[in-house]
Amino acid sequence: MKLSDLKPVEGSKKKRKRVGRGTGSGHGTTATYGHKGQRARSGGTKGKGFEGGQMPLTRRIPKRGFKNPFRKEYSIIKVSDLIRFKDKKEVGIEDFIKSGLIKKLKSGIKLLSSGDIDFPIKVKVHKASKAAIDKIKNSGGDVEVIS
Q1: Residue 39 contacts by C-beta under 8 Å, 6 or more apart in sequence?
Q2: Which phi and psi angles does 98 have, rounded to 5°?
Q3: CA quadruple 40, 42, 47, 50: dihedral sign
Q4: Is 79 in contact with 110 (CB distance < 8 Å)?
Q5: 10-residue block means of pLDDT along the chain (147 residues)?
Q6: Which residues partner with 143 through β-bridges?
Q7: Can you tell me the distance from the alpha carbon of 21 to that of 29, in angstroms, rounded to the nearest whole number?
Q8: CB-based contacts of 140: which residues, under 8 Å, 6+ apart?
Q9: Neighbour count for residue 30 (Cβ, 10 Å)
């Protein structure tokens, strides 16, 4: 038996239903939409959460807390991640994106103090924790906060 000899099992492959191609096709005139009614009309669909006029689930469930529409979410970089840039004197946003540390720049970049550093480097970020700034300054580097 060869690959070219393989065939599907008898009856497993059906012809596709071609709708709205004239009365001779057997699926003409109404094109399987039936007569009248909401689904038979153009634009006859309701929204995703529509439940036939019943109060939708998203509105029945109680809401809790507060969602701040002006919330800023930062992409995070750790001090330990800076080892990649040991040979560089200065590191900025473009360097983080090129290296693949940051996939998506959200509201900015925040530097956190996780990990250690043993070489001087100047880092340009949008925000940085006090502990991260201290670690980099202790190693002889500097942190510039971009506004």
Answers
A1: 33, 45
A2: -65, -40
A3: negative
A4: no
A5: 92 91 91 91 89 92 93 94 91 92 91 93 95 94 91
A6: 123
A7: 8
A8: 119, 120
A9: 12
CATH of 75-145, one of 3.30.230.10, 3.40.50.1370, 3.100.10.10, 3.40.190.150: 3.100.10.10
Residue boundaries of the structural domains of the chain = 75-145
Count of beta carbons in the 10 Å neighbourhood of residue 25: 12
Q: What DSSP letter does each residue of 74-138 carry, written as one string?
A: -EEEEGGGGGGGTT-SEE-HHHHHHHTS-SS--S-EEEE--S---S--EEEESEE-HHHHHHHHH
127, 110 in Cβ contact below 8 A?
yes
| pTM tops 0.70, yes or no | no
Q: How far is CA 146 from the centre of its chain?
A: 26
Structural contact between residues 75 and 105, judged by C-beta atoms closer than 8 angstroms: yes
